[in-house]
Specification:
A hairpin with a 2-residue loop joins strand 1 and strand 2. The relative contact order is 0.21. The N terminus is likely disordered. The protein has a single domain, classed as Glutaredoxin (3-Layer(aba) Sandwich), CATH 3.40.30.10. The protein contains seven helices and seven strands. Helix 3 packs parallel to helix 6. By secondary structure, the chain is an alpha/beta fold. A seven-stranded mixed β-sheet has the order 2-1-5-4-3-6-7.
């Protein structure tokens, strides 16, 4: 009789482990780590500051594994195509990966279509600060997107290796922000 109970406990433990993934994104309401990083926009490099961007309104900080990979290019293209929608909502977008700035400079032209910046985090300090390290490949960022409200707190996050829903979910999250939060 003890065996079936033990089996049920073991089974429940497995299900509990599957229900809670190994990665741990920052939670809604958590303060987002402030960062500055070397970034590229339209092939030109500059120093990006999250604090400066937040002074203008909400910011989408999205992490991606590797520039020029198929899915990362698809995602960057989708953000580029929607950048006017983000701007109409008073929001800006920054992509972050562990790629070097030379690679991201080219990526900012090709896949980002000169529409938004991408930041280099070769040290992975920003990636780690946002709990965006890919567990199975720790040299890469996970595909994880955040909406950071102007007060610097996480308003929404979405993690999925499939790039298809990130833009839509970020736009919906920004639309859901209280108007007083968006208007700075």
């Amino acid at each position: 009789m003890a065996r079936p109970i033990l089996s049920r406990i073991a089974l429940m433990t497995v299900f509990a482990a599957l229900a809670h993934p190994a990665w741990a994104a920052l939670d809604i309401g958590d303060p987002a780590p402030r960062f500055t990083a070397e970034a590229a926009l339209g092939g030109k490099t500059f120093r990006y500051s999250l604090a400066d961007a937040l002074a203008k309104g909400p910011v989408v900080v999205y992490f991606f594994p590797a520039a020029d990979s198929n899915d990362c290019s698809i995602e960057a293209h989708a953000f580029a195509e929607a950048i006017d929608k983000f701007a109409a909502l008073g929001a800006t977008v920054i992509g972050v990966s562990a790629d070097d700035i030379g690679t991201l400079s080219k990526f900012s032209v090709k896949s980002c279509q000169n529409r938004f910046p991408v930041a280099s985090d070769e040290s992975k300090a920003v990636i780690q600060g946002f709990d965006a390290v890919m567990q199975t490949k720790p040299d890469f960022a996970n595909r994880l997107s955040y909406v950071i409200a102007p007060d610097g707190k996480v308003a929404y996050y979405y993690q999925n290796l499939n790039p298809d829903k990130h833009v839509e979910r970020m736009l919906n999250a920004i639309r859901a922000l209280p108007k007083a939060v968006v208007a700075k």
